Amino acid sequence: MSNYSDLTPREARKLIREEVITFPTAGMCNGYAQANLVILPHKHAEDFKLFAKYNPKPCPILEITEPGCFKTKITAENANIISDIPKYFIYKNGSKVDECYNAEKYWRDDFVCFLIGCSFSFEEALMKEGIDVRHITMGCNVPMYKTNIQCKPAGIFNGPYVVSMRPMKDEDVQKAYNITGKFPHVHGSPIHYGSPEKIGIKDINKPDYGDAVEIKDGEIPVFWACGVTPQAAIEIAKPEIVITHAPGHMFITDILNDELEQRLFV
Predict the structure, then answer these.
(1) What is the mean pLDDT of residues 118-140?
(2) Average pLDDT over residues 20-32
(3) For every residue of 92-126, which 3-state class applies, written as one string?
(4) Which pLDDT band holds residue 264 (cuts at 50, 70, 90)?
(5) ∠232-85-14 over CA atoms, to 5°?
(6) What's the whole-number mean pLDDT along residues 75-82?
(7) Environment class of residue 145 by beta-carbon count within 10 Å: exposed (0-12), middle (13-18) or buried (19+)?
């Protein structure tokens, strides 16, 4: 995956659209923000928007499209949301029924698209400060876990936080808090470190999503709120149809991480 670190977002999205890239996007397009995806019927959009507002740590919204529109206006110039992500999950009535590299056949004119900030965005900043990002080093997906931390419900949506995990040395934990705290719209600082069982994770080596990574002697697991949280809520709410990204397979925006706050939120 690191071979794609120097691509521009436009180049990466082209390779994704052509199904050359069909794997996780961690480490791609260094310096650029990445985003999770939720597409659902307009009748559920206000509930989901409120759910995200109530739970900004796991669900920081970067862009919402108009009903029936699958092209971006803010996070990238005219990118195609239903073809420019490496892999999609299709949910019907809360159950995943398909995985695909292009979601056009599932598109409906009443759909609204939500792009939600992703923690892959701040990993370059961690690496610049000498913190090993293990899933990038190992060339695999980030491990993600359902927790016992409950989201604040909104309308039909409720459920547990999902978290991503990055192991690191004890002396790097505070540094990671300081670095990632500067990126609130891609999940910001961690929500927990150490003792996975305290947040309901029974086996750190068996993630609910993504891949297990090595935790070396003397390292501590550090957990960030994760944009897969909506997928856990979708399983409970059971809308008739929802399209999401496959965990770890993100939309790569045209916005530099360092410019995210200024470009979108000032």
Answers:
(1) 95
(2) 95
(3) ECCEEEEEECCCHHHCCCCEEEEEEECHHHHHHHH
(4) confident
(5) 175
(6) 96
(7) buried
Q: Is the pLDDT of residue 220 over 80?
A: yes
CATH architecture under which domain 2-120+237-261 falls: 3-Layer(aba) Sandwich (3.40)
pLDDT at 1: 45
CATH superfamily of the 123-225 domain: PSTPO5379-like domain (3.30.2040.10)
Give span(s): CATH 3.40.1640.10, the chain: 2-120+237-261
Q: Return all residues near 42 (Cβ < 8 A) that are at least 6 apart.
A: 67, 110, 111, 112
Q: In whole numbers, what is the pLDDT of the chain averaged over residues?
A: 96
Contacts of 170 (CB under 8 A, 6+ apart): 218, 219, 220
Tokens (6 digits) for 37: 């995806």
